[in-house]
Design goal:
- It is a single chain.
- Strand 12 and strand 13 form a beta hairpin.
- The protein has one domain: Aldolase class I (TIM Barrel).
- The chain is of the alpha/beta class.
- An eight-stranded parallel β-barrel has the order 3-4-6-9-10-11-14-15, surrounded by six helices.
- Helix 1 packs parallel to helix 2, helix 3 packs parallel to helix 6 and helix 7 packs across helix 9.
- The longest helix has 20 residues.
- 32% of the residues lie in helices and 16% in strands.
- This is NADPH dehydrogenase.
Length: 365
């Protein structure tokens, strides 16, 4: 029987357990994306508190592209020394750490007037109304190369793995989505075409970073809106991701803010589940592919999570907000206090001073 507190191997990386801190933008970096002492403290605390694999918040791969304020950067070599110090500090406490790379695109209202924002086509992003510049093939190669160079810096910085952000309506999700991708060239149309940019990014990173460097991807299991990417299409997409060589897939959705109220609703034949929104989708994906599948979103109960681990092929579980409320959640469970996570999943964790749990940590981190 699989256990939550037993190691999880992803390519050459062995995590001490099956608990992932899923990517969390803390909004605590400086304006250039350099990390602050507050962030170092957060990551070291998570490592001390038994998280198996810590994913950073999304990091900018290009200086001029930034979907949100005070996110991390990895767009030139000046970042390497500070991340070397960060990864060293996390490794001291037995955790693994990976960096998430993102090109945001049009899911942003941040400084949209002063930036060139690329998109697959000319469709306004649903939640922001932002319209991007449809990418030429040259633009696609430019962004692809930025991913590759950023991933090399990730490796050089001592991170154990890199994660490509392929979800949450950011650029790569938009390429996959028939709603946003209205291209008629080899980057639009069929699934093979819509996934091409991810294939090129993956291939570039693999060739540069070597066979044993773990490359993960986070995806949305559905766009959860009319005309968007459906779960039916996500299944062949996951098979293609495995064929390319991705080492693991993290299954997410773009609706975590509203997922509690949508619980029980059925999309593509599967329900959203309170306490693990995308579990039913991840179970099916994990049957389809032979690489580790992790799932993130609303996970709160140790017993339920153990049951899902033991009665499906899901390999691991991600937590974002629960670890903002209780950075010691995983250690607490390991020490035998199995009370569910205290987080209410109310999504009141964004403030001008940084993203933290405003319900249980009023005014502090
Ligand atoms: C404050 C905050 C920051 C987040 N930052 C990121 C991010 O940088 N990259 C990402 O893929 N997801 C990000 N997410 C989404 C989470 O990783 C996760 O998918 C989502 O919150 C659902 O998981 P949870 O219910 O455990 O919070 C963020 C969520 C929150 C609340
Ligand atoms: S503000 Fe709400 S969702 Fe965010 S960490 Fe606190 S309890 Fe959880």
């Amino acid at each position: 029987m699989k256990q939550l507190f037993e190691p999880l191997k992803i390519n050459s990386m062995v995590c001490r357990n099956r608990f992932l801190r899923s990517a969390t933008w803390e909004a605590l970096s400086d304006d250039q994306g350099h990390i602050t002492n507050k962030q170092k403290k957060i990551y070291t605390e998570l490592a001390k508190n038994e998280v198996g694999l810590i994913c950073t918040g999304y990091a900018r791969i290009l200086e001029e592209e930034q979907p949100n304020e005070r996110m991390m950067g990895i767009y030139n070599d000046s970042f390497i020394p500070e991340y070397q110090a960060l990864t060293k500090s996390v490794h001291k406490y037995g955790a693994k750490i990976m960096m998430q790379l993102a090109y945001g695109g049009t899911k942003t209202t941040y400084q949209t007037n002063s930036r060139r924002i690329f998109a697959p086509g000319d469709i306004a992003e649903k939640s922001t109304g932002t319209v991007g510049i449809p990418m030429t093939k040259e633009d696609i190669h430019y962004v692809t190369e930025a991913y590759v160079q950023a991933a090399l810096r990730v490796k050089e910085s001592g991170f154990d793995a890199v994660q490509i952000h392929g979800g949450h309506s950011y650029l790569l999700n938009q390429f996959l989505s028939p709603y946003y991708n209205n291209r008629s060239d080899e980057y639009g149309g069929s699934i093979t075409n819509r996934i091409r940019i991810i294939r090129e990014i993956y291939t570039g990173i693999r060739q540069a970073a070597g066979e044993d460097f773990p490359i993960l991807i986070k995806i949305t299991c559905s766009d959860f809106f009319e005309g968007g990417l459906t779960f039916k299409e996500v299944l062949p997409i996951c098979r293609e991701l495995e064929d390319m060589g991705f080492d693991a897939i993290e299954v997410s959705g773009n609706i975590h803010g509203k997922a509690n109220s949508m619980s029980g609703q059925i999309f593509d034949g599967y329900p959203l589940t309170r306490g693990g929104y995308f579990i039913e989708y991840a179970k099916v994906i994990a049957e389809e592919v032979n690489i580790p599948v992790l799932v993130t979103g609303g996970v709160s109960h140790f017993d339920k999570t153990l049951d899902w681990l033991q009665n499906s092929r899901i390999a691991g579980f991600g937590f974002c907000r629960a670890l903002l409320t209780e950075p010691n959640l995983i250690k607490r469970w390991k020490d035998g206090d199995m009370t569910p996570a205290r987080c209410l999943h109310c999504s009141k964790c964004r403030t001008r001073e940084g993203n933290y749990c405003t319900v249980f940590h009023k005014g502090s981190f």
